[in-house]
Design goal:
This protein is about 70% helix and about 0% strand. The chain is built from 19 helices and no strands. It has helices spanning about 5-20, 25-30, 35-45, 50-55, 65-80, 85-115, 120-125, 135-140, 145-150, 160, 170, 175-190, 195-225, 230-235, 245-255, 260-265, 280-300, 310-330, 335-340. It is globular.
Length: about 350
């Protein structure tokens, strides 16, 4: 099937979904809300999130529940879009969904590690879907983290994280969580080779840029907050990025502090991503997501008969949820709008 025929129907569907994303005016109204409840009410009554929030009382919805509601709504659209594809492209959506499955898997493993009740773990899981590889029920029933990992024995996760169980007692879940993220990126990179050349290159570019930026965030965190040695920092970077080659990553990992690290970044193609001045982790994350948003918007405007239209929409919709939750949460704590803008990727 040619690219034009393959993408005609799904791109039309994506265009409809894009029309439901918030406008600048809606963002402004949301930001101008006087309280948390007012912001929720505006979201329910004046945006296309009304379907997601139908049946919920805005007086009682808390932050965690709001995020759960909006992400469940997102996953429903994600699953519907997968029906427009067949063969390897249908399987691509299973690989893309691993990102969300891994987030829930982290939630379960953290819950087991902290000895949380089954009901608590279930209340903060978000992404259960027909696209799942893992068995949520058996994972949640597991008595501890060691038993939970055994439940994963017939999945692609087991061989990577089982050898790390011995480190959990002394180091917590750090190594396991980093390895799970690595599994997603390596799986997507490997699977993209099954697609046509144009789509393979688009996916390699998108995940390559994001991997580069996540590596920078990881190295920053490791240096500033955890004092992780350079060799270990390098071991946990995501390999085969887009613009940061191995020698540059090595220089970043072996820099003596974050100041030298950003000095090295200033010589790379990402020199304009992070701006100047002392950084905190939330600002690093915001800078990364803002940059990626520009990348997705650029692809969105091309209207190409390729995978970029679908992938850009899925990422933009996810960023919108993050921004909406952040704005509404700022109302709960009476954070002024100027400060609230520091946490989101929008400018209105």
């Amino acid at each position: 099937m040619g690219s034009i025929a393959k993408y005609a129907a799904v791109n039309t569907k994506v265009k409809t979904l894009e029309g439901k994303l918030l406008t600048e005016e809606q963002y402004s109204k949301l930001m101008e809300s006087k309280s948390y409840t007012d912001a929720l009410r505006y979201l329910k009554e004046n945006t296309d999130y009304k379907d997601a929030l139908k049946g919920y009382n805005v007086e009682t919805v808390h932050r965690g529940q709001l995020e759960y509601i909006l992400k469940k709504h997102y996953i429903e659209d994600f699953y519907k879009l997968s029906h427009y594809f067949s063969g390897d492209y249908k399987r691509l959506f299973k690989i893309l969904f691993m990102r969300f499955e891994i987030e829930d898997l982290k939630v379960i493993l953290r819950g087991k590690y902290a000895d949380k009740e089954k009901e608590y773990i279930e209340s903060i899981m978000t992404y259960e879907s027909p696209l799942n590889y893992i068995n949520y029920d058996d994972l949640i029933k597991a008595k501890d983290i060691y038993s939970a990992v055994q439940v994963l024995k017939n999945t692609q996760y087991y061989k990577h994280i089982h050898p790390l169980l011995d480190s959990v007692k002394e180091e917590g879940l750090f190594r396991i969580e980093m390895t799970l993220d690595f599994i997603y990126f390596s799986s997507l990179r490997k699977f993209s080779k099954k697609l046509n050349k144009e789509d393979e290159e688009i996916i390699k570019k998108l995940i390559g840029i994001y991997s580069d930026l996540l590596n920078i965030q990881w190295i920053f965190r490791g240096k500033k907050y955890y004092k992780i040695n350079a060799e270990e920092l390098l071991n946990y970077t995501i390999y085969d990025g887009y613009k940061l080659k191995s020698d540059t990553l090595k220089k970043l990992c072996y820099s003596k502090d974050t100041e030298e690290m950003f000095s090295i970044i200033s010589t790379t193609p990402y020199k304009n991503v992070f701006g100047d001045g002392e950084k905190e982790e939330y600002l690093i994350e915001k800078d990364i997501l803002t940059y990626m948003k520009r990348v997705y918007l650029k692809y969105k405007k091309t209207h190409g008969n390729n995978i970029s239209v679908v992938m850009s929409y899925l990422e933009l919709a996810l960023l919108e949820i993050r921004d909406v939750v952040s704005i509404i949460e700022s109302k709960r704590y009476s954070i002024d709008n100027e400060e609230a803008f520091r946490y989101v990727t929008i400018t209105v």
